[in-house]
Amino acid sequence: VLLLTMYLRFRWQYRHVLATAAKLSCPPTLPIIGNAHLFFGDITDVTKNLRKISSNSDGIFCFWMGPIPFFVIVDPADIQIVLNSSSMLEKDNLYSVFRVFLGNSIFSSPVHVWKKYRRLMNPVMRPSNVEHFLPAFNEVSRKLTEQLSVSSPPSDRTDEIFEMAVIASSKSIFSRKLTIDNLMDAKFLIHTVGKLIILRTFKFWLHIDWLFKLFYRKELKECLKIRDQCMDVVSQEWKEGATIKKEVIPGANQNIERLSGVNLVDVMFENLPIISDDHDWMDEFITMIVGATDTIVSALSFLLFTIG
Question: How many CA atoms lie less than 13 Å away from 117 in the CB half-sphere?
């Protein structure tokens, strides 16, 4: 009776969504599980299944995880319309899978939190402000180019790219270089967390917190341990950055000299407290570093692979 009540409540609460899903094309479904069978296997198998479905679609389709529809938009022009719609700001419950690692940052927070802190961070993200960090980006890019220009046997160059990405992202966030004693630990963390997030996203049964924590408790323990170590480094950096901003520490050394432009530390200290009931600025620092670093490493690695 309880399950039936929950199901009927779900059908009523999301009746408009379900009505829209019924009008769209979808892959052949199986009883009870819907299209969940398409997500069995590793990420390569799942990606192949999704690409096959996308290539046969008209641009918008849905697939079913049991009774829950997921909408997929293939055309970038259609995606832009959706992303620019004010009615689409609220995030799906699926974003809760990121909160284990990224907390309640603007990437995963509900819309009422997102609106407040996205508005506060607007000065950091304006193109005119980003221009202040171009010299730092150019500097690390030149150093990476010099490293890659040295003739050597075929090898994995992601370590150099990762170091460059951490330096570039930290300079835009703290206006100075982030010093991490063991970059490989940070790289391991981002790589492992990325794999776990992708795995949890596509394996819908892992959306259940206790099940995910049970199956991957060893990986979670290791990741959270390294994350705490990185958080200590980040915490020390913004404290030193705040001191430099007040010009308590003079000096022209690039590692301690404050760069121009508004950074995330500036915004944080203008909007205290650091930790509130629904937000922690430390989550924003971690999200920015992880997001920027992972994007840069993926893009440049793919570029190098493409050009041979």
Answer: 26
223 pLDDT exceeds 50?
A: yes
How much of the chain is helix, strand and coil, in % rounded to 5?
Answer: 65, 5, 30
At 140, list the tokens.
């690390």
Burial 116-137 (b: 16+ CB within 10 A, else e): ebeebbeebeeeebeeebeebb
Residue 91 contacts residue 112 (beta carbons within 8 Å): no
Per the CB < 8 A criterion, the answer to whether 297 and 158 are in contact is: yes
pLDDT classification of 160: cutoffs 50, 70, 90 = confident
At 254, the pLDDT band (50, 70, 90 cuts) reads very low
List, in order, residues 6 or more apart from 300 with CB less than 8 Å away. Answer: 161, 165
The encoded tokens of residue 34 equal 């819907």
> What residues have CB less than 8 Å from 278, skipping those under 6 apart?
104, 109, 113
Query: Alpha-carbon distance 33 to 67, whole Å?
Result: 8
For the chain, domains (ranges, CATH) are 1-87 (no CATH), 99-307 (1.10.630.10)
Partners of residue 61 on adjacent β-strands: 72
For CA atoms 262, 250, 287, 270, the dihedral sign is negative
d(CA 252, CA 256): 7
* pTM, 2 dp: 0.70
Residues 297/165, Cβ–Cβ less than 8 Å:
yes
Look up residue 109 and give its amino acid.
Answer: S
pLDDT at 155: 72
- CA-CA distance, 252 to 244, in Å (whole number)? 11
Per-residue pLDDT tens digits for 58-92: 778 888 887 888 888 888 888 888 888 887 788 77
